Model the fold of this input.
Amino acid sequence: MDRIRLGLLQVNHDRSEEIGDHFPDDSHRFRDLFDQLEQRFTYRVYMTEGGEVPKDPLEQDAFLITGSPLSAMDDHPWMPDLIAFIRACDAARTPLLGCCFGHQVIARALGGTLGKRTGGYNVGVETTHFHARRPWMGPEAQLPMYVFHEDHVTTLPVGCDLLGGSNACPIGSFAKGDHIFTTQSHPEIDRRFMEAVMAHVEGHGTDLSAGRATMDQEPQGAIFAAWAAEFFKGGRHAQSG
Done:
């Protein structure tokens, strides 16, 4: 099976003793997730938080923008280059997947709007209800996955289609053509990591009791990973055809 060349744009480098010293970073979590699939990948990590952004949208077959505790509404030093790259992927129709921060920054780059949620953090296991389908998606109408965010997309970019959401996050997933796909959720997170991050945040005085009440649900990140692989393959074939 041909390997997909996947560029991972890492926008989080956790330096904390509590989390960063004990868990793999974002790019490794996605690699662990995708390596469970039959589809094989060749990975290239771009340390975007440190200013490394791909120069060309054709450097890889597809790209993924990770999550981050940083806000996609802020003007980080590397944000202009990242936004320019997202727009270049859009123009070249290079498959681009965004998760959490990635979902939000893609919306921002393409002309959507972001805002702070009323009520603070949305955290725990949340089910995205999919109201629209794309060829890369399986038959599941809903997927529970881990979430941890305070910002959210408030208005979709022109030309993008809402795929699904929830009461707590109405714009939980969107697409543009066959080359942009996003989710506000974290398919790459496992329970051990989620519990540690929640405990860390609670240790600074934040009440996450509502989120803890959702943790008995079984997340389905592996199903989303299979969708993502089909998305990468379909977009790559359309690009080369």
Q: What stands out?
A: The first strand starts at residue 4 and ends at 9. Residues 9 and 65 are 5 Å apart (CA to CA). The radius of gyration is 17 Å.
